[in-house]
């Protein structure tokens, strides 16, 4: 069996606004559009992924928050409706997705062997979080690949951002080992924004782009600093500066997704492809992809 | 409405959000005691003349202001993110939609951003599901659930409580008000045998017991004033502040005149779980006065960031 490999790593923010703006048939809400910079970026990245041969998407989401270890989806199919608890007016999405349980269990076993507290989630009534749904829908609207969702163990809150870096990196290494041994080709997804301070009021028409801007300038400056380092291939430095970034911008990096993904990819020193940056209700969102293949890596933006 | 034109709040309940008392009460003696305390509260609610059960849940975070559950019949099967292996929680809750809509209006009159949510399949949080299933299993009394805005702090939370009072007085409804929150909220980060459950640390236990003394003495306003200390000492810093005591005190009238009763205090995977009742009374045991301004109207941020910036 050939060694499995990570064929791409995507930073894929999950504001439900982006699905809302797309008006897919699965979503009950209707919009007049909005947030095109991000949506068009997602569409371009989705086209790239279509041209990559892969078997499964493994996604780390901060909206499945677990305090007792890291949990993995452990049933082959989940079908239900995901309603965003914060933006239910925008996101009521009927999903029907497949899980690569074999890969999920292999990653769980590898993580356990590394001393990480783990749990398989095998309750059929469990509702898959909207972060998973949003990022996966935007990266693969056809839903023709199985996924694995990994929960966010809340180390940043419970201990510190530094502990989160250690734990999420270890989890990433374990997942990479399991992927290699599985023989599968896998796309990793870290589902989250960068700066994450929201406005607490919403425009009467949420997609009114005349109302959309970053929460404050310091958030923007921080986000640009991180994006610049991603472009320069300084992924290790991104992680090194993350405790400060997370604290200063209330960043969603606190969930550990980007650390996990870059850790699994061995902290790549090649440039990230940048597909777009835009604010959503004040938060900063970048779509980025780390393509380990020198022949297919692009300079997108 | 009472003779003093004040809303009639029959009693308040403080209870934990974890699902063990609902799904696995037999797993430990502590969980059984918590379940028995919930059952006692249910009985008292049934014997009361309450028109509405009003829930403020710390496990329902909101961002766009304050969300108010308004779906007349909320039906779903809930599964907890951490404790999914304990089982599913099917529910059907009947909301007081009239209250919910008036509550929104009264929030706005006091400067708060607020909205009702009325969507089939809306994910009602674990804490609300546990509380309503145990306190009002047959929907004998309509209820309403309020979210806890993740950015809100003291002023906003106190004004939210006052908007509840406005609404109850306006509608002439007798209420039981319920706060769903742990005391100390640090859980063990590994799976444990429920029989060996205990409070995570001595420090958490000491603080919890001090808070329980205050509750037992009916000193709710004093607890409200202690909220920031409590947040710093025994709360994992997930949100900006420990808000339940602010909300409960503001809703129940901002004083120390209650008969407090601690029905149970037990560990829930390391966190402090207590079921407490507070019944309005006369006479005061408080021995403190406070000079922090009371707040009637929420004016939003003070725009400190914009002052002194470069022109």
Secondary-structure map:
The complex is a heterodimer of chains A (301) and B (311).
Chain A: E1 5-11, H1 16-22, H2 36-50, E2 56-66, E3 70-73, E4 77-83, E5 92-98, H3 101-113, E6 118-121, H4 130-139, E7 147-153, H5 155-158, H6 161-182, E8 185-190, H7 217-231, H8 235-249, H9 257-264, E9 273-280, E10 283-290
Parallel strand pairs in A: 1-8, 2-7, 2-8, 3-6
Antiparallel strand pairs in A: 1-10, 4-5, 9-10
Helix pairs in contact in A: 3-6, 6-9, 7-8
Chain B: E1 8-15, H1 20-23, H2 29-47, E2 52-62, E3 66-69, E4 73-78, E5 89-94, H3 97-109, E6 114-117, H4 126-135, E7 143-149, H5 154-171, E8 174-180, H6 202-216, H7 220-225, H8 227-234, H9 244-252, E9 258-268, E10 271-280
3D architecture notes:
The complex is a heterodimer of chains A (301) and B (311). Chain A is α/β, with parallel strands linked by helices. Chain A has one domain (5-290): Protocatechuate 4,5-dioxygenase, Chain B (3-Layer(aba) Sandwich), CATH 3.40.830.10. Chain A is 36% helix and 23% strand. Chain A contains nine helices and ten strands. Chain A has helices at residues 16-22, 36-50, 101-113, 130-139, 155-158, 161-182, 217-231, 235-249, 257-264; strands at residues 5-11, 56-66, 70-73, 77-83, 92-98, 118-121, 147-153, 185-190, 273-280, 283-290. In chain A, the strands form three sheets. A six-stranded mixed β-sheet of chain A has the order 7-2-8-1-10-9, sandwiched between helices. A two-stranded parallel ribbon of chain A has the order 3-6. A two-stranded antiparallel sheet of chain A has the order 4-5. In chain A, helix 6 (161-182) packs across helix 9 and helix 7 packs antiparallel against helix 8. The model of chain A has no long low-confidence stretch (mean pLDDT 97). Chain B has helices spanning 20-23, 29-47, 97-109, 126-135, 154-171, 202-216, 220-225, 227-234, 244-252; strands spanning 8-15, 52-62, 66-69, 73-78, 89-94, 114-117, 143-149, 174-180, 258-268, 271-280. The longest helix of chain B is centred in the N-terminal third of the chain and has 19 residues, at 29-47. The termini of chain B are far apart. In chain B, the strands form three sheets. Chain B has a six-stranded mixed β-sheet, with helices on both faces. A two-stranded parallel ribbon of chain B has the order 3-6. Chain B has a two-stranded antiparallel ribbon with strand order 4-5. The chains are: A alpha/beta (301), B alpha/beta (311). At the A-B interface, strand 2 of A face strand 2 of B.
